[in-house]
Amino acid sequence: MLSTFKYPKFEYVRPPEIAEGREGREGHYPVVIVGAGPVGLTAAIDLAQQGQRVLLLDNDDTVSIGSRGVCYAKRTLEVLDRLGCAEEMVQRGVSWNVGRTFFREEEVFNFNLCPEPDHHRPGMINLQQYYLEDDLIKRARQLPNLEMRFRNTVIGVTQVEDRATLRVETADGAYTVNTDWLIVADGARSPIRTMLGLDIDGKIFMDRFLIADVVMKADFPTERWFWFDPPFHRNQSVLLHRQADNVFRIDFQLGWNVDPEEEKKPENVIPRIKAMLANDGNEGPEFELEWVSVYTFQCRRMNRFNHGRVLFVGDAAHQVSPFGARGANSGIQDTDNLVWKLKLVMDGKAPATLLDTYSDERCHAADENIMNSTRSTDFITPKSAVSKTFRNAVLGLAENHAFARALVNSGRLSVPSFLADSSLNTADSDVFAGSMIPGAPMDDAPVQAADGTQWLLGAVGNRFQLLHYVPDASSLDAVTAQALRSLIDATIPVEAIIVTERGAAPAGLKTLIDAKGRVRERYDLREDTSYLVRPDQHVAARWRALDVAQVRAAVARATCNA
After folding, report:
1. Cβ atoms < 10 Å from Cβ of 203
2. pLDDT for 322-356, tens place per residue?
3. Helix (H), strand (E) at residue 100
4. Which of 163, 260, 390, 505 could form a cystine bridge with 509, CB 3.0-4.6 A?
5. Which CATH superfamily is domain 18-93+123-199+300-372 in?
6. Per-residue exposure over 102-129, b if at least 16 CB sit within 10 Å of its own CB, e if not
7. 24 with 175: CB under 8 angstroms?
8. What are the residue ranges spanned by the domains of the chain?
9. For 504-557, what is the HEC assignment?
């Protein structure tokens, strides 16, 4: 048990498919999700809050043991904002933007994840995974069409053309449930992936790391600190993060030829921590060892993430090393990409081929993560004497030379993927500056709206929307206003939003006041510029002049209806 967190126990309830003392009828649910970790919970909440009935199954009855995932990136927080559960996490977690890298005794490199002003969320928060899951479960319980079943273990999966069938084991026996769509979020070892005989390819890295969660009152700043070859852990690396409740995560590189069980013993862990905390002959702050684990890691992914009626997300689909915080962040962004597409397919508004683009886009993102993770791992754990000599030379030069700082790699931190090559994009026909290209994740910016909305990303998401810019909303002519209103009546509705510096748009059109000019700056807006944005807050298309026919064609392309 942890000294800083009391684990909840979620009640097991006899499933309705099991009658008293025997198996009853088969159940049917439009969507079944397996795995109540951060990724499965996020998918379930997203679907349920859009009105979809969901069954979520998990073989456990509590949240994750130990802090496990720690860092949650700005984009993930923006997704969780849309799901109505980010604020409490941010308030409890430790927000940070700055990371520092040390070589032996000297700082050689630092970075800022969010150097621009006027963003709602920080570059990262540090929060133990059990808190994240607990908050997600609290949000899930607020949704009446989301049913969660704990201590329900999937023991078999089959599928035919129009459904998947699950066999589920419980304390009261087994039962069968059918589903139109199965979302698999059952983790890196994914029993369901094995049941379906699906492969996952990649490589295991021959190194081991010790995780120690330590409770202490220390004056380390709220930053990410990474050491190469520090005096307290020679020839290896160390990573330090502050979390909630004065818990510090410390990762010690161990090398491959160690005994994991021996390394986890307190009598071997505590001296390492004491050596790290000692300063100028002082022993450093007192601490309590809360949780210890030894891990290896691998970088790999499935060839495709959609297989008929079965859709894989998170670690079940892809895995990376922990350097860069790309695991849970990437998994939550999987669900952000998947859910709006699945909802359109289920509502009969898009063909099932739209789900192929889920796999295409998120395989691209996974490849980016694997590439960055592999490069980080190769830099942190060089595989030869030559590689280590090069690495140390880079670190030695980085303090004084910009070219060397660009080569330092203690983990490229998680950022959202730019889907520039997606088949869902409509290519630019006009000239734009800046990074908000078709396929880009949207930048946030402060705004003012009559309903109290204070951030651009708080006004968009869950549906297609068209941002149309005019300097003075009250000057919008009647013909343009009616053309914008007409978009809401399409088969796939598009909500028009007027972005402006002043005034109010005509009735039926939402107004966002860009008081600081950040939206205009970040989106390179000129009068009559329009941006079509997807339900997952990625740019789908943009134009310098409004043409309703072009907007409708872009929506058709973005939903595989073209």
Report:
1. 10
2. 766 777 899 999 999 999 999 999 999 999 999 99
3. strand 98-103
4. 505
5. FAD/NAD(P)-binding domain (3.50.50.60)
6. bbeeeebbebebeeeeebbbbbbbbbbb
7. yes
8. 18-93+123-199+300-372, 203-298, 456-558
9. CCCCCCEEEECCCCHHHHHCCCCCCCEEEECCCCEEEEEECCCCHHHHHHHHHH
Pairing of strands 530-533, 54-58: unpaired
Homologous superfamily of the 203-298 domain (CATH): D-Amino Acid Oxidase, subunit A, domain 2 (3.30.9.10)
Helix, strand, coil percent values for the chain (each to nearest 5):
30, 30, 40
Q: What is the CATH number of domain 456-558?
A: 3.40.30.10
| Per-residue pLDDT, 22 | 62
**Fold agreement between 18-93+123-199+300-372 and 456-558:** no
Determine the average pLDDT of the residues in 526-535: 98
At position 108, the amino acid (one-letter code) is: V
Residues 24-28: contacts with CB under 8 Å, at least 24 apart = 24/175, 26/175, 26/176, 26/177, 26/178, 27/55, 27/175, 27/176, 27/177, 27/178, 28/177, 28/178, 28/179
